[in-house]
Amino acid sequence: MPIWLVQLLAVARKEVRQTVRDKRMMFMLLGAPLLQLIVFGFAVDFDVDRVPTVVVDHDRTEASRTHLRRLFADGTLVRVADVPDERSAEAMLDNRGAAVVLVVPARFAADLARGRSAPVQVVIDGTDANRGSVAANAVARYFQQVALELAAAHGRVPVRPRTMPRVLYNPSLRTPPYIVPGIAAMILLIITTVVMAMGLAREREMGTLEQVLVTPLSPRVLMLGKLLPFVLIGLVDFGVALVAGSYVFGMPLRGSVPLVLSGTLLYLMCTLGIGLFVSTLARTQQQAFMAGFLVMLPAILLSGTMTPIDSMPSWMRPLTLVNPLRYFISFLRKSLLEGAGLDVLWPNLVALAVLGGTLFLLASLRFRRTLA
Prior knowledge:
Elements: H1 3-21, H2 23-43, E1 51-57, H3 62-72, E2 77-82, H4 86-94, E3 100-104, H5 108-113, E4 121-124, H6 129-153, H7 176-206, H8 208-213, H9 219-249, H10 257-281, H11 285-301, H12 324-337, H13 342-371
């Protein structure tokens, strides 16, 4: 066996033993990611339903009551109160007792019967823009359908064909299958970057790194020996995230397992390269933690996990091109949810390989220079 391989395995064995003996570190590496995945998976939910709505019905006819029952039937809005006037309804908005006010005008049924315009007022709490837009769309969609039905009944326009949407990959439009791959990628970034950076900073702070340097180890072997255990830990964490995402949140696993593992290894090369580079800049664990946090926060915000990249300002989108998290999340969603193959995923793999190689090269050069 080559001497460099013996040295590499010895350093890796030493890192594994040191990590296993530290129970707090083991919980951080194995227990915390699973806990974070479950908490984030249940907490992050883009599905908007049961929006509290207060009704002001000035018409009080059978027609107005029927339309209100039909409007609330799909569950997007939930009727929490009926009040006599707009002032009382606005007071409920101010007190956060409701998020939507629905005002039905007087003579609503009579105007509809005569084919006249019968505007229904909707007042929405705009502090939650997503919930407000969904509520407004639900009301508008319902009354547009009512208008089409009445116009067709009066012979003004022909009846329009009904659309039958077909949703691919996530037929129920649930949030977890979409968000869990992004959460898994974020957890890998946090764990591997911060732990890698703080581990080397701790050894430098305690003086054990200098003790290792007196041994006949080359910087390359020392660096790879310290990285190898974290690669294995990252793969274990990712496997746990996939199993939890599948069994707890119903996330499909349609992609090729070897292809997914290949993309994960390239992504780990990026995150560990970032952690290694940060460790060469920090002299203490506190500095390493803060530097890692300053790197991770922009990476998460610019990854497209929570908001689409296309909705970001045009001047900000080029910044996402150097973000490994962006490519890995896209890779996971296309592979796991859509079952895409190498013919579709190769641009993401190439981007991860280029970024990972660049980051790893810069970090290794900085690491050797720091040890010299």
